[in-house]
Design brief:
By secondary structure, the chain is mainly α. The chain is built from five helices and no strands.
Length: 126
């Protein structure tokens, strides 16, 4: 087989493989699932905290700052925002006023958010 013919065959094979392969997706960082869970918790706090009179922290702004500092691509940004919204909507469906169970959930979520943030920082911060 001549060199030219060999190059043509290689080119055809390469193009065929490229066309058959699905489009490459960006690889999520190892902390993606943890980050999504933290943002879901923050979304829950964004709903529950003001409901129970705690307004010291703007959980939406904190989540927005966290996402911006991670500088995700559009797909990851949408998933992170979606996790925040899911946390908010989950508690908005259940609570209309600050009941004893809402207060307990708020206390649990505050602890959970603190633990998750500390864990993420200790494992992945530079």
């Amino acid at each position: 087989m001549s060199k030219t013919r060999f190059r043509i065959v290689c080119l055809i094979v390469a193009v065929s493989v490229a066309m058959a392969a699905p489009a490459a997706r960006a690889v999520d960082p190892p902390y993606q699932a943890d980050m999504q869970h933290l943002l879901e918790t923050m979304g829950s706090l964004y709903f529950l905290a003001p409901l129970c009179g705690y307004t010291a922290t703007d959980w939406r702004q904190s989540a927005s700052d966290l996402i911006a500092s991670d500088d995700p691509d559009d797909d990851r940004r949408q998933r992170l925002n979606g996790a925040f919204n899911q946390g908010y909507q989950g508690y908005a469906r259940v609570y209309r006023f600050c009941s004893a169970s809402a207060q307990q959930a708020l206390t649990r979520l505050l602890k959970e958010a603190e633990d998750e943030a500390r864990d993420l920082h200790s494992r992945y911060a530079e």
